[in-house]
Amino acid sequence: MRLYPQLQALLLVSAASGSSTGLSGGGGGNMSGSVVGVAIQDFSFSPAAMTVMVGTTVKWTNNGPSAHTTTSNTGTWDSGQLSSPTSGGGYGGGSAGGTYQHTFMAVGTYAYHCSNHPPSLYPGFTGTITVTP
What we know:
- This protein has one helix at about 5-15; strands at about 30, 35-40, 45, 50-55, 55-60, 70, 85, 95, 100-105, 110-115, 125-130.
- It is globular, with a radius of gyration of 14 Å.
- The protein has one domain: Sandwich (Immunoglobulin-like), CATH 2.60.40.420.
- It is mainly β.
- The longest helix is centred in the first third of the chain and has 13 residues, at about 5-15.
- Strand 7 (about 85) and strand 8 form a beta hairpin.
- The strands form three sheets. It has a five-stranded mixed β-sheet with strand order 1-4-11-10-6, with no helix packed on it.
């Protein structure tokens, strides 16, 4: 079943925190909780921008057709290669896509990209995490 990226992010947030924390429209709202999710697929991060509180962990999950990374523009983090999900065809099985988590402990704005698909070639494949007190 294919879900809209915003719904995937909401499900990741709900499953990880055990709550029904929602996403605001228009680029992500102020989300709090222990873990919030970002889906990587179709050469985009969803949501591409979000605001979280200090101490929040962001978990990126690769749902796309190829390997991707989540790489801070300032070197704060680098996920390395996150594999794409595989399916078992008609035989079942398969594996989920690779994931990476980073906990934000300082207030600021953190821009990031996929190093496999640089912004110079894929200008929409960027994201921003804004961390508030």
